[in-house]
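A quick word before the example. In earlier lectures we treated sequence and structure as two separate objects. From today on, think of them as two lines of the same record. Here is Stage II sporulation protein D written that way.
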Amino acid sequence: MKRYLLMWFIALPILLVLMPAALVFWFSPEISPVSQPTVAVPEPAIPAMKESASSLPVKVYRTEKKAVETLPLETYITGVVAAEMPAEFELEALKAQALAARTYIVRRLKEGKFDDVPSGGQVLDTVQHQVYMDEKQRRERWGDQYEWKNKRIQQAVMATAGVILTYQNEPIDATFFSTSNGFTENSDEYWEKPIPYLKSVASPWDIQSPRYEETVVLSTVELEKNLGVKLTQEASTSGSWYRIESRTTGNRVGTISIGGKEFTGREFREKLNLNSSSFTLDLRGNQVFITTKGYGHGVGMSQWGANGMAKSGKSAEQIVKHFYQGISLQEYKRVIPA
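And the structure line, produced from the sequence above:
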């Protein structure tokens, strides 16, 4: 009897351990016999740009070749973003640039006015419209950096494919420029045309741009010749040789009086080929030191501002909605016939 009791006391703990394990085995859902650790799967490489046959065609007049090339929309946008914005910029800034570039061409195609392009073309590949670089040009410019730069540009374009910026269901005039003086400009204070979504907004990030501030030196003779004015000796020595008559909302020169004539800030900038209409003048003997802030007309999206916003964590949508007030994002097929 003692022998059986001893065996029972030995078997009981074993049964208490094995029975629950057996129940779990028989009644649990099917599992793999070998447990595998969870492994993060890397994102696939960006595939080569492919577009359907129904993609919107763009007829680009290639200035150097003096020929028209018909390109699928997103292929064209890839070439524009590559030419208009450094590939080193933040991805969200590149996406914002793709949205602006796509909107520009869709608006142009919708309006159907191509009289500023040689016969058969719809858009130029120069700064007159949007700069465009084909694959060969990108390879030549980027050299051994071509692969990563091209993939980065493609990633931005593909992430925004087919999307444009609209105001009241119409493609906007998505103007952009390099660098602001800290503010963008109201459209009517540069082009004398009020556009509701092209309003002056702050862009403090532009101070990081290498073109934020520059000084050029002209002789008084050059200044007089380019402006068609004559500086009087009295004005030169008295320190009142010019006067800023007004400033714009974006703190650029609105109008300036010099040599008995009045110019808008835009006229002054264009006649002297200055970076910006935000400038100061300093006469030293027979030389004029002109210091500009910003680079470009100042209306719409600042590219360096966009990059600064992206660095601070803003998305492409937040960027474009900052620089283009009151806009929406839509598929281009909703606003242009197929």
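Notice the following. The chain has two domains: 57-179+298-334, 213-293. We will return to this example when we discuss secondary structure assignment.
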